[in-house]
Design the sequence.
């Protein structure tokens, strides 16, 4: 794993888990996670960045593995009091979590960039990896549904992903500026990992930041996606449901097609081994279910091993089933 | 107590206690408390209004009687987390209390006036009395000390009132606008009570709002102050220390002189009974130590009884010692 500079593109839980695995395997500082901020929103007068925080809490090892969001051993005293005062109570914020939102919002109002805010926070939590928002410009995912247009968190949390998705917009993405930090991380990367995050909701917003897709296309480093779809289902979240609503098969092959021209490698779950010949990319088949640190580390090793092979032989057609990386 | 419209001018703890006594005695809605906002400040990116909240929590009966600030049964989880993140931790904010600051700050940012915010909050807490900030314009008390100029909370909390006070400024008071709510409350008042709050820090800022002093001078209603100085000491806070530092005697007589021309009645504590002949105002001598609801109610009744006498006979020289009002 020496001399690998890994950039992981991540959204929420799945991405955060693989990022934690990669961090555990790589030398400190060699992982940079570029995180979706399309889910960000204003709530209680604060700027909430759910994916940045999920990645941060997972990399700090203080995340709540039961919920997939928030902190372990969290209390909800302020939340209860806000609710009693007639405040919005459809989005739960814990008391310790709230400290992060307060710090972030205060800094943002002082004119500190979100990139700098994310860096200050990850350093406070003692995280060795870099955590970069996809942009400092606000981008807000808007979900076009059969019930009308819904801001992302209203679709995701308030309406529990129940409305049928017709299309998505990333409001502000056109005007969003690629940050120096993202540009430099991509330039320095020897491997790019598309984490098993929702392709539409988590990774597309990152790819829509002007310059990101172009830079990914240009770069020589291997680009490997881990399928977020296993056995026709998303491990968590609405990815499979959205695929069907958008007229696609809920299959890893849909993921490969979706990132057409960007990927140079792919990782399938054991359950989808039969599909390996249908993927027109060097592909590893392994256990992608990250239920504990060991399985996160194992998947990370598989991804890094495939990356290493592709660096040596970029056009290699690697189709194998391995239990563990060397 | 029928047909009395009472306006109480109040700062922190002492004022809040007497306000609670007055509320307990008067018909619902007949009390309006005009509250000092010179102590307000920005903290953690939120607007904190300590005196408004102390009055509100006391009128709701949910205040912490031990500390004098904050809520009963409070936790400090977010505070601890903010501290761990390197945030400012010299001013303690409880988790439930934080809900109030979040609601208020969000509303203020939306353009809602502080008067409307205070009214929304007191209604949420089921408080029958009106709670009015002295102005919607920001006024910030600046304490000129031997250690330099200190914003109020830095003097009061961070430096624990230790620096020697040379003078005070109420920054923004010159430009502050008298609100319709304050003007109407004063116009309708049949009795004005200067609560036993710090004359310099709590009541002077209210009196410095353009129009307040003039309106008080003009009005026919009795204006009664309850001495915040008992036995040469302030019951709570730096009033006595400040009097000495400003070259005054720490005496109820200093309070009378300070409000020269505004008061028409005065309330002395039993401990200061010897001073009654030195006060050139109709004066009641009673127990002013408000240690429980009963003593708050008793003091309120004494104040209202004096007010009633002064309404009937404004020039009466009332000098008596009474144990309880009729």
Sequence:
């Amino acid at each position: 794993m020496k001399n690998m500079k890994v950039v992981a593109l991540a959204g929420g839980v799945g991405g955060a888990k693989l990022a934690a695995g990669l961090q555990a395997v790589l030398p400190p500082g060699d992982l940079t996670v570029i995180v979706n901020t399309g889910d960000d929103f204003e709530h209680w007068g604060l700027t909430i960045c759910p994916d940045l925080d999920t990645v941060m809490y997972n990399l700090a090892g203080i995340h709540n593995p039961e919920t997939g969001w928030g902190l372990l051993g969290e209390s909800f005293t302020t939340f209860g009091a806000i609710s009693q005062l007639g405040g919005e109570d459809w989005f739960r914020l814990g008391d310790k979590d709230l400290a992060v939102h307060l710090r972030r919002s205060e800094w943002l109002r002082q004119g500190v960039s979100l990139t700098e805010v994310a860096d200050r926070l990850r350093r406070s939590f003692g995280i060795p990896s870099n955590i970069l928002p996809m942009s400092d410009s606000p981008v807000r995912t808007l979900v076009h549904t059969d019930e009308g247009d819904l801001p992302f968190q209203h679709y995701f949390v308030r309406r529990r992903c129940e409305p049928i998705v017709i299309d998505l917009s990333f409001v502000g993405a056109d005007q969003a500026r690629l940050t120096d930090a993202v540009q430099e991380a991509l330039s320095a990367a020897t491997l790019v990992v598309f984490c098993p995050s929702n392709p539409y909701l988590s990774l597309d917003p990152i790819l829509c930041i002007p310059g990101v897709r172009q830079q990914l296309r240009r770069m020589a480093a291997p680009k490997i996606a881990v399928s977020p779809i296993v056995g026709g289902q998303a491990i968590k979240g609405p990815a499979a449901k959205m695929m069907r609503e958008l007229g696609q098969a809920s299959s890893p092959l849909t993921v490969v097609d979706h990132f057409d021209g960007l990927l140079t490698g792919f990782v399938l779950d054991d359950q989808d081994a039969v599909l390996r010949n249908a993927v027109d990319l060097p592909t590893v088949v392994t256990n992608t279910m990250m239920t504990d640190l060991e399985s996160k580390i194992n998947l990370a090793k598989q991804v890094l091993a495939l990356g290493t092979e592709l660096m040596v032989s970029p056009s290699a057609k690697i189709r194998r089933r391995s239990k563990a990386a060397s």
Summary: The longest strand of chain A covers residues 165-171. Residues 320-326 of chain A have pLDDT under 50 and may be disordered. Chain A has one domain: 6-138+177-321.
